[in-house]
Amino acid sequence: MLQNLETLSREARSWPFEQARNLLAHVLKKRLSDADRAVAQSLIDAGKADEALKQFEGLGRPVILETGYGPSGLPHMGTFGEVARTTMVRNAFRALTGDHWETKLIAFSDDMDGFRKVPEGIPNPEMLREDLHLPLTKVRDPFGTHESFGAHNNARLRAFLDSFGFDYEFMSSSETYKSGRFDETLLLMLERYDAIMGIMLPTLGEERRATYSPFLPISPITGHVLQVPTLERNLEKGTIVFDDPAGGRTEVPVTGGHVKLQWKPDWAMRWTALDVDYEMAGKDLIESVRESGKICRALDGSPPVGFNYELFLDVEGKKISKSKGNGLTMEEWLRYGPPESLSWYMFQSPKSAKSLHFGVIPRATDDWMSFVEQFKTQEPNKQIDNAVWSIHGGNPPETTSPVSFSLMMNLVGVANASSKEQLWAYFAKYLPEATPENEPLLDRLMDYALNYYEDFVKPSKVYRLPTEQEKTALLDLAARLKALPQDTTDGEIIQNEVYAVGKEHNFEPLRAWFGALYEVLLGASQGPRFGSFAAIYGLPQTIELIEKGARGELAA
Predict the structure, then answer these.
(1) Percent helix, percent strand, percent coil in the chain, to nearest 5
(2) Cα 242 vs. chain centroid, distance in angstroms?
(3) Is the omega angle on the peptide bond into residue 509 within 30 degrees of 0, that is, cis?
(4) At what angle do helices 77-96 and 15-31 cross, to 10 degrees?
(5) Residue by residue, what is the 3-state secondary structure of 459-526?
(6) Contact 461, 413 (CB under 8 A)
(7) What is the DSSP letter of 304?
(8) Residue-level pLDDT at 354
(9) What is the pLDDT of residue 4?
(10) Does residue 174 contact residue 111 with C-beta atoms inside 8 Å?
(11) Residue 4 CA: distances (Å) to CA of 23, 48, 59, 332
(12) Which end of the chain is more exposed for a tag (fewer CB within 10 A), N or C?
């Protein structure tokens, strides 16, 4: 699926391919000498990545991409966005290298972090307050379903990623620290302690500098993750000494899960120990990326390549905050729109701030379907830059829905529908061959439209009275539609009559006429292609709607 695309991938202009080319250049520079790198690059450019991998031993290791997750709360939209976007880069890299080079995406959970604050809206908050400062994998699960709060949130993350079909390797901080996989790098950090402190201390305030240590020991007595200074280091024994508030002067090894690292040193340690090649991060972590990169180099590692994406904004243009609750959860999005629409939203302009609220879901859904349709007739060099190529890993669906989501929502509203059975009844004449089995997306869109209309559109609908010009035009349109065969299901025939009426009654510009139709008949500022809507709703029902609007009954 992702083979034989090397030439197209080198010329592709969409951001996943730009990132893939950056990743390739980074990996070649990281693993090969200048002379070998030039040879390997020429082979890859010639579509012979398999030969480059055989010729140079340094290219034999998988290319590692990482995403991070802090399980102090449930997985959120940013978590999904990071995995989705990184997967897009990964697929672009596979295409760029002929899919010969093994890649791996690590979804890393920082579940050994100390539990600092009880999230709002979580059951059993009193129990959670008793477990403050414990590693998240030692905090009791307030939901009562898993052995810990961290395990519960990790399970939610994995279930969600699995539901989208992401290919990833889950990695737990607690398990990885305890397994010894980080031991070698942790001992190196102990050895390079002064260099790491030299990087971190200038970034801290005076009070924080006085107590800072990159090592956060786990108290042998309380099990708490302690924010205490390191009093002594013993390189031969691989230990640190600190003052435990519960037991006085204490010595523990830095290996085997006895300590946890501070955030920035921890990130750098992972990059080094796991040999991470690519990781993106939010704009709010620019400083963290910079400082972690310095620490990574101090550990003789090579910081991964990546980019800083912009953060989401709410409907008022303010930064989204979990504590404020002004965001939009993944579960909420998936109540009102298909998963593909969420991936579409994440693809668009990741380096630009975007509003994330319920109002963007219908547009994202219709845009995704529109670009799937465009993909079918595009030349290969256009297809690979089409967003749906990246969203679907080079294999977008062949069909979507015969009607738009916006049209479906207006049909729900005008028909006052409360079930899919009612909606399918309207489609019986317009699409007599359609069934839930052969039009599955259409069937799903009905669920989304019913939910969206009931929760958002219905409460905010505002119909207005027509002007005299509009009233005359509406009655003219009703008369013209009555002259058509009443079983007409050709939306173009109906649309032609709508255009003719608008021109006949001198609406200037013509879109003012369509605006009047939406505002008077549908109670909205915009709507679907009116001919298609009328064809599905039914000509007799549309005529009745128009006449009610002309008489002002809808506004009443």
Answers:
(1) 55, 10, 35
(2) 41
(3) yes
(4) 70
(5) HHCCCCCCCHHHHHHHHHHHHHHHCCCCCCCCHHHHHHHHHHHHHHCCCCCCHHHHHHHHHHHHCCCC
(6) yes
(7) P
(8) 86
(9) 85
(10) yes
(11) 19, 10, 20, 39
(12) C
Give the C-alpha separation, 460 to 457, whole Å: 5
Name the 3-class secondary structure at 356.
Answer: coil
DSSP 407-424: HHHHHHHHHT--SHHHHH
- Burial class of residue 269 (count of CB atoms within 10 Å of its CB; 0-12, 13-18, 19+): buried
Closest-CA residue to 104 (of 61, 50, 65): 65
- pLDDT for 433-460, tens place per residue? 999 999 999 999 999 999 999 998 888 8
Q: For residues 549 and 471, what is the distance between their CA atoms, to the nearest angstrom?
A: 8
User: For residue 526, which of 362, 372, 400, 332 has the smallest C-alpha distance?
Assistant: 362
Residue in the structure block whose two tokens are 């007739």: 377
Residue 326 has pLDDT above 70, yes or no: no
Best CA proximity match to 100, nearest among 67, 66, 56: 56
List, in sequence order, every residue forming a beta bridge with 516; answer none if it has no partner: none
The pLDDT of 136-160, averaged and rounded, is 94
| Residue 320 pLDDT > 90 | no
Task: Report the percent of the chain where pLDDT is more than 90.
Answer: 84
**Residue 99: pLDDT over 60:** yes
pLDDT single digits (tens) 1-49: 677 899 999 999 999 999 999 999 999 999 999 999 999 999 999 999 9
Distance separating alpha carbons of residues 17 and 9, to the nearest angstrom: 6
Q: How far is Cα 236 from Cα 386, in angstroms, rounded to an integer?
A: 57
- Phi then psi dihedrals of residue 436, to 5 deg: -60, -30
- Please say whether the beta carbons of 428 and 442 come within 8 A: no
| Sign of the torsion formed by the C-alpha atoms of 154, 159, 162 and 166 | negative
**Among residues 177, 201, 19, which one has the least CA distance to residue 95?**
19
Residues 6+ apart with CB under 8 A from 409: 362, 449, 452, 453, 457
Residue 383: its H or E element: helix 380-383
Specify the DSSP element, H or E, that contains 216. Answer: strand 215-217
Residue-wise pLDDT for 269-284, tens only, equals: 999 999 999 999 999 9
Residue type, 2: L
Mean pLDDT of the chain: 93
Query: Which tokens go with 432?
Result: 């007599």
Q: What dihedral do alpha carbons 5, 306, 41, 271 form, nearest 10°?
A: -120
Position 331 confidence tier, pLDDT thresholds 50, 70, 90: confident
